[in-house]
Amino acid sequence: MSNPLPDYLLPVTVPASWGWRGIIAMRNRRYDLGRGVHRADLPVISVGNLTTGGTGKTPMVRWIAERLRDDGMKPAVLLRGYGSADPDSSDEARLYRRELDGMPVIADPDRVGALRRHLASGSDATCAILDDGFQHRRLHRDLDLVLIDATRPLDSLRLLPAGHLREPLESLRRAHAVVVTRSKSVDPELAARIESLHGRPPLAWTDHQWTGLELHEGDAVRYEDCDWLSGRRFASRLGIGNPDAARRQLIEAGGRIELDVPVRDHAGFGSAEVSRLIEAADGLDGVFMTAKDLVKAQPLLDAGCPIPLVVPRMRLRFHSGQAALVALLEGAMAS
Q1: Which end of the chain is less packed: N or C, by CB atoms within 10 Å?
Q2: Which domain holds residue 249?
Q3: What integer is the mean pLDDT of 274-282?
């Protein structure tokens, strides 16, 4: 993944990142002393990361929410609501409501206040899951999980604004556990590096398994197995934090990307983009996107896109550590 700003600006952005390191250190010292930290009246689980961009927080939050619900808990999901003037209509909020039917999804930059208001309204929530919460330290958490993307080499990352790190790698030490995402298997070298930063090896190793496909055409939806992708040609449109990972999975499944429309994370569908995708549709078998893109794709469907919008259905798969993570969740619920 490229840096957030062009490399020719590194003589400026690298010194700026030293200043950012100092700001983060002062902020963390204040929270380490408990200043400005608010404790909710129910257990809170945070799922976060060290970087901008995607590490697979949404599949992990969904897995945790479903697991807790299956165990008789009543979770509420808290998120900031990036990419929208109205956080409640952000792509992530809409995606969680689509996939966690009936579960409270609260989108508000002030997650402390939003949770208090939700509980005061008579909610029967028994726990809260904080999406992208590692840096949101105002809200006390009973379990602090940090996700590390196995496809992004840790030691190649720089601090903002020179790179994608929100805070130094050493901040991993305050996490209760580290979970590796997008891993093909347990990687001893990466495990050792994480242990040197965190003090313990990763708790669990996971990846994102595609279990099938949704093909959206107008108001109709049909379902296919993933082998449907093999040999077919696509335009890809991926407004997510780490689009390279999704492109790789499509290519590994045998799909061919004939056109890639690069957009920023959380981007909506503008009229110029819709026109470009429709004009390019001849000879293609679909527009490949994620469920996060789909919740914003109505303008493309309304414009009469002549090829289906192809969306992989995904679930979290554990290579190891699932039982250990379940034990931590149970401990947090009992706190």
Answers
A1: C
A2: 210-313
A3: 96
Residue 238 falls inside a structural domain: yes
The Cα–Cα gap between 302 and 313 comes to: 23
In this structure, the answer to whether residues 222 and 131 fall within a common structural domain is no
Both 21 and 146 in one domain: the answer is: yes
67-71 long-range contacts (CB < 8 A, ≥24 apart) are 67/326, 67/329, 68/127, 68/129, 68/329, 68/333, 69/103, 71/330, 71/333
Using an 8 Å Cβ cutoff, are 235 and 258 in contact?
yes
* HEC sequence for 64-79: HHHHHHHCCCCEEEEE
State how far the Cα of 230 lies from the Cα of 308, in Å rounded to an integer.
16
190 and 233 share a domain? no
What is the pTM for the complete model shown? 0.93
Neighbours of 199 (CB within 10 A): 11
Take residue 199 and report the two structure tokens written for it: 């003090």
**pLDDT value at residue 142:** 98
Instruction: Give me the mean pLDDT over the 8-33 stretch.
Output: 94
- Find how far residue 197's CA is from the centre of its chain: 22
Asked if 277 contacts 293 with a C-beta cutoff of 8 angstroms, the reply is no
Residue 33 CB: number of other CB atoms within 10 A? 9
Same domain, 173 and 306: no
- Could you tell me the CATH number of the domain that includes residue 276? 3.40.50
pLDDT computed for residue 292 by the predictor:
95
Residue predicted with more confidence, 106 or 154: 106
The pLDDT assigned to 52 comes to 86
Residue 167: pLDDT band by 50, 70, 90 thresholds?
A: very high
